[in-house]
């Protein structure tokens, strides 16, 4: 699997270039590296259509301003995956048509997948 | 303005007999015509990825199988294959063959459940009852060797938890042979039935460009003309040695998806019979966890190995692996910083990708057609919401 | 006011003609079509032909207005789903019962304590019978329905 580190402002060009050379998007994810290097990382997995080649793009953004340009108009699949990454990790995708929470209720406070979110506490009913 | 006033927005709520699981559709209707349907999900979000970071590797396996509860073995197999890739263990040929065979049996079972739910949606309770009857022999076979009807926990890093006997494999062949005879009855009720054809032909047409843009996978993508099957494009287990036929159709409607799945069931039946006849002899576990129990139980793991598996730890690094489940392409990305728990485990579920295409497909249709489209996408909400 | 009077009259009537009513109620439990997660597959198996729950008098109805039992097939109840379950329960006419299937309704099951879950079903609706298992076998679910039937006939609920 080929791993490429890409700058945030170069992401859209890289994604368009991959689309034109016959790749499709598989997955958009986020990783919380705040405790290690004070950054968040957005991962984009691409695969060749009907082929085994895999490409992974990694975009690092600073923890105090996690903004990444959205590729939802190039690959429709990124629409919901970016909403999910925003919902669970708090990374904002600029230019997304409808960046709202997708899994959690709208009034949920916090982003659960961050390392400092303590998930296993007792939930009160109601 | 008057046109707008006649349209109402209603909730196809999370409790509805025609949604297979917890989906809330915000539907804009006028009479019987649906103008737009927007899916709202998250009613079953259990926090799998956070759970993975809190549990050890082998403790996460039961939770993972509850994601896609219809085809649990596909995820079981993928997760163990990922751990084996990370640890550098190569599984023995017998284990690979048995896992492939179980994958194909799981495909038959999953497609039968899809057919049952789809038939029920279209108003054919007979198809529901017949499909559940066809599932029973396979579920009993699974239960005999793994102990579970729906969730198996059968794979271990290095192979399989328990071996199967020759007698068991003969019974698998007999069950599949009987299933193949009965499949013609199911076809007579569905693909060869004029009412079913009228309800599904031309309904929910997903063009090739839309399918590629929305990122759908699995039978939905193959029914729109793209021959993408991970068992052929990026083969795993024993698939490089099997000649698999990738089944595609070009129309992209609900009928094409039905045909693709029924043909896949026939193909899986053929592969199961071939594999069950030609499984090589040998051990079923390899690597550091492969010590077998005493002479009384020569086919199972010993207690010492089980304890070692519990304390499994993976060195630093990242790994990615993808397989093909009955619903489409499943994938996992593992980032480990050393230690017994993962740092980040990301799951890709095909139903999440397929559901995104639904809002495109359900524009300007009838309510009954919208239900047929939803059924033909084969969604399982445990894996949509994770 | 009118509904309180009606409820009190019906309670009195019920006292007078106890047994046949309770027998009738226990033998014709009509559940709501409601499935959340993995246990709902075993519930579909319960309604299929091998373990046929139809012989117990159940008749699955789509709307809670026509039902008397709410079978909640596991999958833990999430925050978004809790309002839905409460609403379904509120829409059912009395007398109404609730069966909780699976370990997830008893204590949260495998996912206990997660950030999006309500661990125990009886913190949102009053539950009459719990069926343990993950998922419970269809025969175990049938046993749960028979327990509820016995509970209706012997206790006045």
From TrEMBL, chain A:
Record-linked Pfam families: Complex1_30kDa
Domain NADH:ubiquinone oxidoreductase 30kDa subunit: 6-119
Molecular-function GO terms, alphabetical: NADH dehydrogenase (ubiquinone) activity
Highest rank taxon of the organism: Bacteria
Family: Belongs to the complex I 30 kDa subunit family.
Organism listed in the record: Candidatus Sungbacteria bacterium RIFCSPLOWO2_01_FULL_47_10
Record InterPro entries: NADH_quin_OxRdtase_su_C/D-like (IPR037232), NADH_UbQ_OxRdtase_30kDa_su (IPR001268)
Protein's name in the database: NADH:ubiquinone oxidoreductase 30kDa subunit domain-containing protein
